[in-house]
């Protein structure tokens, strides 16, 4: 009886250990874009933590430097008027979005909506709209927003407005960890032990 109890505990531990691979969480901070100065850094693309950001216009991505009047307290990523920025995994893996920080960049006075569109693996999309407020972008700061249903994505995109442009920061993203061969072996061993114990119990 004691032997069966030990085997059962070992089997359950193996199954849980094999399934314990957690999603790889990342927060994209754009800290590599922090620069002193009064002007703006322009980029063709940007990469961080395994994610890549591209724009449909050449060298359209931008980040205001620390002494620029549009700087919002930390480095952020913006883009040209009307342009579309796309985020995807550099390795092509599916990912999820859970949060983002938004701040005004250069805009006409008044609040405005920002819409994010996620392209799902296998087709279909999900979208969510956030409101960015403020009379102007002086003394601007990032505000935090939460995504709902932005799971199993191949890409996410957002478009700058014609009268309102904004910057993004602190993007919370995750990608499911790929189980290692050892974890798969542990799972099979655990399931095998559980099956053996069930057969032995039934035989008894």
Question: Would you give an account of this structure?
Answer:
This protein is an alpha+beta fold and 204 residues long. It is built from two helices and 13 strands. The strands form three sheets. It has a six-stranded antiparallel sheet, with no helix packed on it. Helix 1 packs antiparallel against helix 2. About 3% of the residues have low confidence.
Features:
204 residues; six-stranded antiparallel beta sheet; globular
Largest sheet: 6 strands, antiparallel
Overall morphology = globular
| β-sheet strand percentage | 35-45%
Averaged pLDDT: 84
Q: What string, H for helix and E for strand, traces the elements in order? A: HEEEEEEEEEEEEEH
**Low-confidence runs (pLDDT<50, min 5 residues)?**
14-20
Distance between the termini: 12 Å
For the secondary structure, the number of strands is 13
Q: Given the structure, what is the number of helices?
A: 2
Pairing-aware structural class of the strands and helices?
alpha+beta
Supply Rg.
24 Å
Strand order of the largest sheet: 3-4-7-12-9-10
Helix content: 10-25%
Task: Please summarize what this structure is.
With about 200 residues, this protein is of the alpha+beta class. The protein contains 2 helices and 13 strands, in the order αβββββββββββββα. β9 (about 110-120) and β10 form a beta hairpin.
């Amino acid at each position: 009886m004691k032997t069966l109890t030990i085997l059962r505990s070992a089997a359950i531990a193996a199954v849980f250990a094999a399934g314990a691979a957690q999603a790889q969480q990342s927060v994209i901070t754009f800290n590599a874009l922090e620069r002193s100065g009064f002007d703006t850094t322009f980029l063709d693309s940007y990469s961080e933590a395994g994610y890549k950001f591209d724009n449909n216009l050449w060298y359209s991505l931008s980040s205001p430097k620390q002494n620029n009047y549009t700087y919002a307290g930390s480095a952020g990523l913006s883009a040209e008027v009307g342009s579309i920025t796309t985020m995807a995994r550099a390795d092509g893996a599916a990912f999820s979005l859970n949060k983002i920080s938004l701040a005004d960049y250069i805009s006409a006075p008044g609040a405005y909506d920002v819409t994010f569109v996620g392209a799902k693996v296998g087709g279909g999309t999900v979208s969510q709209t956030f409101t960015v407020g403020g009379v102007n972008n002086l003394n601007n700061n990032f505000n935090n927003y939460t995504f709902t249903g932005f799971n199993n994505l191949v890409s996410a995109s957002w478009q700058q407005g014609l009268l309102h442009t904004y910057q993004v920061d602190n993007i919370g993203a995750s990608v499911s960890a790929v189980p290692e061969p050892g974890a798969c072996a542990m799972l099979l061993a655990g399931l095998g032990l559980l099956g053996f114990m069930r057969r032995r119990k039934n035989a008894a």
